C-alpha cells in the first residue's frame, strides 16, 4: 500500500479508539510475520488501555510478549529487532515512564539512522498512553509530546479518533522510521473512564493507512482557527458545535502528527480566519503551542487580526485533586472562552 | 519478641486492613452505575495493599524517629505503619486542602517530611532516593536508617541495581525491601524474572540477602530486625525479599481475569491466620480481637469524617508550589 492511496470511507461499523489501534496491529501482524508486539501487560490483559485487545488470543505469547518491568531493556530490544529488519510494536505503558528509558528512545531509537549516515533503519513503533483528566496525578497524566517532538529522529503521531488511530497505526508500522505513537487515555473509549462520544466511531474493517504528517480539517469554519491534537480535538469540536449556535464559525485543525508537522495546514487555515487559538494539553512553555505560533510569526504575522492565543497546561505538574486538575487542563469551558476572547 | 510485640503487630495489621477496607468501600460507593475511574469523592487509580500488611508492620516495628521510608504506588500500609497521620493521609486521598500535600499528590504521591515518608508512582525509583537519605543520615552522624520498598517486578528495573551497588560501595544504612506478591499487574513472577529469589541478587553486590517465605509477620520482624540493626551499626545495607500476597487486583477495577491463583487467595489472607495463631498461643483473646477491630474502625471513621468535612482546593491553587 502506498501513501498516496486514498483512505476508505468510514462505513458504519462503530469501534473504540483502543479497538481500532489493536485491529490495525492485528492486520499488520497477519500480513507480515516480522511484526510483533511487546510491553508490560500487553498479553492476556490486552494492554492497560486496550491497545492490544484480543491480539494475545489470536497470535499467542510468541508474538504478543509480556515483558518484565524493564523499559530500558525491552525498548532497547525493540530497537535491536528493528535494526535487524523486524517491525516491533513496543508499548511504554504510560508516557510518563519515559524517564527510565529515555536513553534508548532518544540516543538510540531516534539517532541510529542519522548516525549511521542512513545505513541503518529502525522501523519500530513505540506506543504510549498520555494525558490526564481522571485524577491520576503528576506521574501518570502528562502528554509530553512536545518533549519528544523536540528531539530529532523520531516521528511523533497523536491520533484523536478511532479512524485515524487505525490508519495511523498501519502507517506507523509500515514506516521505515521509528514512530512514537501517543494515544490519549481519555480518547480510547474505555468503559471505565469518562469519554467523549467521539471516542467511538465508524471505522472500516479492512486495513488502510492515514498518512503521517498530514493534518486534518476536523471542522471547517471562517472566524477562528483552533489548532490542536488528541483529546483536545474532541473538546474543540464540541465547542465549535456549541458556538455555531451563537453564530461563531470555528475551524478545527487536528494536527494528527507533530513530526512531521503539517505547517501548511496551519497557515492555510489562519490565512482564512485571521485568528489562531492553539489548544494543547501539554505544558505551555517551550512546546507545541509556541511552535505553532512561530509558524505564523515566521511566515506572515500580518495575516493575524489578533495576537495568537495559547491554551495549554500552565507549566505546573498535573495535580491530583479534581478542582486543581481541571483548573489547569484545557477544558471545553476554557476553549470556548478563549475563542470568544479572540473575537472580542 | 514479647507477647506485647505480637499484639502490637496484630493491632497494626488490623488497623491497616480496616482502613483500606473502608477506603475500598468509599472508593467504589459513588462510582455507580457506570464505573468511572475519575468519578467520586476518591478519584483516580487506587492500589490497595490488603494482604501485604505483614511486610509493612514487620519492618516498621523496628523504625524510630528520624528513620525514612520510601514506598511505592501501593503505599498505605507502609505509610500507616511508619506513623503517617491517618487524618492527613485520608484528606490527601480525598484531594482536600488539609491533606498531606494539599490535594496535589493523591494516593500514589504521599509526602510526610515529619516522618521522612514518601512514595512514588514510578517503579523502583524510590530505591536511589533512599540511598541519598541514608547518605545524609550517615554524614550527619546519626544512627538513622532509610528503608526502600518496591515490588518484585521492580527488581528487573535498572534503578534497583544501581541503588544496591551504590549503597554497598558507599556502605550506606539502607534496608532494601522487596514485597514479592507474585504479580506485576498481570505478569506472574516466573514469566518476568529469571531467578527464583531476588534475595540472591544481593550476592552480586556483596550484601546480605534474605527471603522471608509465607507472609509471616513474625518472620519479617526477625529478618528486618537484623537488617535494621546492621544498618544502624554502620555495617551497611541489606536486601530483604518478603513473599507476600496481593489479596486484591493491581488497582481497584482490575477484574484479574489473568490471575491463575485467585481461588486460593482468601485462604492465604495473613490476618485471620495470625489471629488464629495468636489465640492458640494465648497472646490474643476473642474479646481483644474485637476491641482491636473496633478501635481501628473508630479511628478510620474519624479520619474519613475529617477528610469529607475538609475543604476542596480552589482551581487557582494549582499554580502554587511549583517552586520553593
Describe the protein's topology.
The complex is a heterodimer of chains A (344) and B (324).
Chain A: E1 14-16, H1 17-31, E2 35-39, H2 55-59, E3 64-66, H3 71-83, E4 87-94, H4 102-109, H5 112-115, E5 125-130, H6 145-150, E6 155-157, H7 162-174, E7 179-184, E8 200-202, E9 216-219, E10 224-228, H8 231-244, E11 250-254, E12 257-259, H9 263-273, E13 276-283, H10 288-299, E14 309-313, H11 322-328, H12 332-343
Parallel strand pairs in A: 2-3, 2-4, 4-5, 5-7, 6-7, 10-11, 10-13, 13-14
Antiparallel strand pairs in A: 1-8, 6-12, 9-11
Helix pairs in contact in A: 1-7, 3-4, 8-12, 9-10
Chain B: H1 3-29, H2 53-60, E1 68-71, H3 76-81, H4 86-93, E2 117-119, H5 126-139, E3 146-151, H6 158-169, E4 174-180, E5 183-184, E6 187-188, H7 189-192, E7 209-212, H8 217-232, E8 238-243, H9 270-280, H10 286-309
Parallel strand pairs in B: 1-2, 1-3, 3-4, 4-8, 7-8
Antiparallel strand pairs in B: 5-6
Structure description:
- The complex is a heterodimer of chains A (344) and B (324).
- Chain A has helices at residues 17-31, 55-59, 71-83, 102-109, 112-115, 145-150, 162-174, 231-244, 263-273, 288-299, 322-328, 332-343; strands at 14-16, 35-39, 64-66, 87-94, 125-130, 155-157, 179-184, 200-202, 216-219, 224-228, 250-254, 257-259, 276-283, 309-313.
- By secondary structure, chain A is of the alpha/beta class.
- Chain A has two domains: 15-202, 3-Layer(aba) Sandwich (Rossmann fold), CATH 3.40.50; 216-343, Rossmann fold.
- In chain A, helix 3 (71-83) packs parallel to helix 4, helix 8 packs across helix 12 (332-343) and helix 9 crosses helix 10 (288-299).
- The radius of gyration of chain A is 19 Å and the shape is globular.
- With 324 residues, chain B is α/β, with parallel strands linked by helices.
- Chain B has a domain at 50-271: Rossmann fold, CATH 3.40.50.970.
- Chain B is built from ten helices and eight strands.
- Chain B has helices at 3-29, 53-60, 76-81, 86-93, 126-139, 158-169, 189-192, 217-232, 270-280, 286-309, and strands at residues 68-71, 117-119, 146-151, 174-180, 183-184, 187-188, 209-212, 238-243.
- Chain B is globular, with a radius of gyration of 19 Å.
- The mean pLDDT of chain B is 97.
- Chains A and B meet through helix 3 and helix 11 of A and loops of B.
Amino acid at each position: 500500500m502506498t501513501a498516496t492511496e486514498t483512505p476508505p470511507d468510514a462505513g458504519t461499523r462503530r469501534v473504540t479508539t483502543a479497538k481500532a489501534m489493536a485491529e490495525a496491529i492485528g492486520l499488520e501482524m497477519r500480513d507480515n510475520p516480522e511484526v510483533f508486539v511487546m510491553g508490560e501487560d500487553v498479553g492476556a490483559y490486552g494492554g492497560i488501555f486496550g491497545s492490544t485487545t484480543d491480539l494475545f488470543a489470536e497470535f499467542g505469547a510468541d508474538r504478543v510478549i509480556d515483558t518484565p518491568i524493564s523499559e530500558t531493556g525491552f525498548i532497547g530490544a525493540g530497537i535491536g529487532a528493528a535494526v535487524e529488519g523486524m517491525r516491533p510494536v513496543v508499548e511504554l505503558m504510560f508516557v510518563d515512564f519515559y524517564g527510565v528509558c529515555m536513553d534508548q528512545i532518544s540516543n538510540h531509537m531516534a539517532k541510529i539512522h542519522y548516525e549511521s549516515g542512513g545505513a541503518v533503519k529502525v522501523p519500530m513503533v513505540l506506543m504510549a498512553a498520555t494525558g490526564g483528566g481522571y485524577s491520576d496525578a503528576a506521574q501518570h497524566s502528562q502528554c509530553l509530546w512536545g518533549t519528544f517532538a523536540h528531539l530529532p529522529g523520531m516521528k511523533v503521531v497523536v491520533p484523536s479518533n478511532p479512524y485515524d488511530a487505525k490508519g495511523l497505526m498501519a502507517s506507523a508500522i509500515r514506516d521505515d522510521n521509528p514512530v512514537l505513537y501517543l494515544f490519549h487515555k481519555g480518547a480510547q473509549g474505555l468503559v471505565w473512564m469518562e469519554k467523549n462520544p467521539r471516542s467511538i466511531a465508524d471505522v472500516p474493517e479492512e486495513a488502510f493507512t492515514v498518512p503521517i504528517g498530514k493534518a486534518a480539517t476536523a471542522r471547517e469554519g471562517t472566524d477562528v482557527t483552533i489548532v490542536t491534537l488528541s483529546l483536545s480535538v474532541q473538546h474543540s469540536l464540541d465547542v465549535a458545535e456549541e458556538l455555531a449556535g451563537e453564530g461563531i464559525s470555528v475551524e478545527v485543525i487536528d494536527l494528527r502528527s507533530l513530526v512531521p508537522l503539517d505547517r501548511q495546514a496551519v497557515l492555510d487555515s489562519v490565512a482564512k480566519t485571521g485568528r489562531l487559538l492553539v489548544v494543547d494539553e501539554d505544558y505551555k512553555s517551550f512546546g507545541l503551542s509556541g511552535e505553532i505560533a512561530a509558524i505564523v510569526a515566521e511566515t506572515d504575522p500580518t495575516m493575524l487580526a489578533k495576537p495568537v492565543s495559547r491554551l495549554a497546561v500552565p507549566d505546573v505538574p498535573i495535580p491530583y485533586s479534581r478542582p486543581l486538575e481541571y483548573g489547569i487542563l484545557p477544558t471545553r469551558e476554557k476553549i470556548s472562552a478563549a475563542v470568544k476572547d479572540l473575537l472580542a | 519478641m514479647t507477647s506485647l510485640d505480637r499484639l502490637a503487630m496484630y493491632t497494626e495489621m488490623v488497623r491497616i486492613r480496616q482502613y483500606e477496607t473502608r477506603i475500598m468501600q468509599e472508593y467504589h460507593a459513588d462510582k455507580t452505575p457506570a464505573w468511572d475511574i475519575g468519578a467520586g469523592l476518591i478519584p483516580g487509580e487506587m492500589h490497595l495493599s490488603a494482604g501485604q500488611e505483614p511486610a509493612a508492620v514487620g519492618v516498621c516495628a523496628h523504625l524510630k524517629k528520624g528513620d525514612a521510608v520510601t514506598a511505592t504506588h501501593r503505599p498505605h500500609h507502609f505509610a500507616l505503619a511508619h506513623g503517617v497521620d491517618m487524618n492527613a493521609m485520608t484528606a490527601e486521598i480525598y484531594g482536600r486542602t488539609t491533606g498531606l500535600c494539599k490535594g496535589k499528590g493523591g494516593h500514589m504521591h504521599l509526602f510526610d517530611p515529619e516522618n521522612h515518608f514518601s512514595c512514588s508512582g514510578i517503579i523502583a525509583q524510590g530505591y536511589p532516593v533512599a540511598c541519598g537519605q541514608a547518605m545524609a543520615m550517615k554524614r550527619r552522624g546519626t544512627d538513622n536508617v532509610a528503608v526502600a520498598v518496591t515490588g518484585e517486578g521492580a527488581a528487573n528495573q535498572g534503578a534497583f541495581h544501581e541503588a544496591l551497588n551504590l549503597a554497598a560501595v558507599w556502605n550506606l544504612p539502607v534496608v532494601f525491601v522487596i514485597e514479592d506478591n507474585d504479580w506485576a499487574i498481570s505478569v506472574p513472577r516466573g514469566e518476568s524474572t529469571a531467578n527464583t529469589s531476588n534475595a540472591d541478587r544481593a550476592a552480586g553486590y556483596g550484601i546480605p540477602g534474605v527471603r522471608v517465605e509465607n507472609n509471616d509477620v513474625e518472620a519479617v520482624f526477625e529478618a528486618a530486625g537484623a537488617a535494621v540493626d546492621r544498618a544502624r551499626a554502620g555495617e551497611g545495607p541489606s536486601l530483604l525479599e518478603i513473599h507476600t500476597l496481593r489479596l486484591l487486583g493491581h488497582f481497584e477495577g482490575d477484574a484479574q481475569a489473568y490471575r491463575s491463583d485467585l481461588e486460593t487467595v482468601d485462604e492465604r489472607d495473613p490476618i485471620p491466620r495470625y489471629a488464629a495463631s495468636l489465640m492458640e498461643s494465648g497472646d490474643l483473646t476473642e474479646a481483644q480481637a474485637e476491641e482491636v477491630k473496633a478501635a481501628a474502625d473508630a479511628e478510620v471513621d474519624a479520619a474519613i469524617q475529617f477528610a469529607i468535612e475538609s475543604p476542596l482546593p480552589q482551581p487557582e491553587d494549582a499554580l502554587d508550589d511549583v517552586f520553593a
